[in-house]
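can u pls check wat happens w/ adenosine monophosphate
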Amino acid sequence: MSLQNLEFSHRLIDQLPADPISENSCRSVENAAYSWVTPTATSNPSLVNLNETFASELGLSAEDCASQLFVNVMTGNEVLEQTSPYALCYGGHQFGQWAGQLGDGRAINLVEINTEKLGYQTLQLKGAGKTPYSRRGDGLAVLRSSIREYLCSEAMFNLGISTTRVLSLCLTGDQVIRDKMYDGNASLEPCAVVCRVSSSFLRFGSIQLPASRGDEALMTQLVQYSINNDYPELKPENGNFDIETYLNWFKAVCDKTSTMIVQWMRVGFVHGVMNTDNMSLIGETIDYGPYGWIDDFDLGWTPNTTDEGQKRYRFGGQFQVSQWNLFQLANAIFPLIGEAEPLQSIMSDYAIHYENKWQTMMSEKLGFKDYQGSSDQDLFKALEQLLETVETDMTLFYRLLATYQPNSDALAHFTDCYYLAGQLTAKYEQQLDTWLQRYQARLSFDGLAASIRQTNMNKVNPKYVLRNYLAQQAIDLAEDGDFSEIETLKVLLENPYDEQPEYENYAQQRPDWARNKVGCSMLSCSS
Ligand code: AMP
Ligand code: MG
């Protein structure tokens, strides 16, 4: 199969209204779900990394991807015949404030393909030039943020977490000025384009924007589109969309969202910019910006410098924010339902469902057979307190917990996960011992063989995550022209739960030099 021979499909552009103006200038786009736009040509496109496994699942062979045509298409320098690239129109709440129209300001959807293995998938270029939604932006993306998106998407996928995927990472040959830390120190950086892939790039904000404009017809069309294509199992047989169909759809969006957030909490992922324009209607992790991974367990940590004061998007606040975001979506679809009560009831269930999923997830992390009620809940909460008492590496802690032997020296066993030896007081040791005794008693209640419990725990507690400093090291090297670390990280993160002795040094705690380094502990939205 070659690029041109992929089976193209056009569900979105056939079913939703296009912006009749084809001129590529920044403007308000009304009564339309998207605008036609051609990617901007670049000076010297080249492939940095290819996601071979995924490419083959999409139906592309190694030879296809090695061609100049592939690089040209994946950087926007060539548009395949019979395809009509477009940028989506959507709005969103940013940091709690309604921001009006946002849209794909630098993402351009190339084409939808119908694949044998993965069904419908849309290929989208991020950083392919200006669109009518670019506002004050230049439509471009720099190499560092593109590497972060490229690596993290696949790391999440391999952890079993719902996410947009990536096919390729390319350099464009061009450079752009960026003020990386918003501190007046601007510099030239290489531009890159990531080809992102998803079955649907619709966001909460896709529904919110027409609703905010009182364009009920377009809002309804978008919801019906999502039902027909993202949730076909909810499609009414007689073709008549009624209130119940819309409520079932909203429930399904809630369900996918709560699952996604629980999974983030399981692995210590902090999205960093959970604005409603960055919330996918199919519950995929989308828009990898100033995200971060928990090194030392801290529910109050946010990786995003813009969020430093408010900490709206902190690790421990992700459920509350998802709930807030779903409330905004509920408001947007209110005209379809006509009364508040059923929506409120789904939102109340959302909190309950989230809690249930969180309890199940925590039970699995701790290796329990199942969740046993409030005494387990107490144990989880006590564990969170314990992990926050001294700086404790979350990922290492859970792997070490799996091999802890009852009544052995706990501090010695967990030594690798502590960041500051000075914090390990007698009082802390007492707290640790007390928790471990309760934990042991709980394990005895289950009576599972230790080896089975360990195997179970290691299936949900990853050994390898994309620690912030690891991504930064790959970026530093890549900016000097050495792309090898991108490949290494990609490969080792394919099997995050397995012991990989050759990569043992990638499973260690964050080194001290990275504690306060830009890119390792804090990131701006500059990208
Ligand atoms: P984000 O929070 O990164 O998802 O971006 C918020 C909005 O800004 C979206 O509409 C993006 O398309 C847009 N945006 C971000 N960076 C740029 C850029 N360099 N050029 C144009 N639009 C951008
Ligand atoms: Mg976004």
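Residues 277-278, 287 surround magnesium ion (ligand 2) (CB under 6 Å).
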